[in-house]
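Example record for the data management plan.
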Amino acid sequence: MSTATQYTMQQVLAALGSAQERIKSGKLADTPANGFALSKYLTENNLAPTAENFYTAINALANVPGSLTWAVRPATLLAQEKNERPATHQSVEAATKPFTDAKKAAEIADAKTKANEESVKQAKSLILGYIPVKSTPRGQVLDYAEQKQAQDEWTKALNQAVEKKRNLQEWTKALAATIQKRYRDREKAAERI
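Corresponding structural encoding:
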């Protein structure tokens, strides 16, 4: 004796309606495919077409993708689908870009600091290496006054360049050119005498 034959069509539809009302946030579409899927579930599981059994069938089939058609998807089903989607991943390059950019900036800053330190060292060496000579009746002698005046002037200028964070590499090149010019000018002046 089959359990489906004991219920009238109106009783089955009423039970299905009651089961659908229990679904708080969703609504099944009224399609033949849904009716067939629910009937098949009840038959395979030897269940009577009651509101409770329809509700059980709806819950069971809701977890099988594509088995039921929804007019409005239930919130729990939407949440499950959202959680089942593949996680969005950034590429390794995009994820590490802020760190690699910061590292590059730090390396550039370190290189600039090192270059500035080398330039200061080179500038001090050029300043200390300035040894002007002058011609006297006794021959060539060191011009201490010129040396002191030039070294004081250039040391002061170097300290200002460091303080104002100027391009010390260019400043050192300019200092070297200035010293060379000063030597040439002194040689020309000595030749005229």
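Summary line stored alongside the record: The mean pLDDT is 85.
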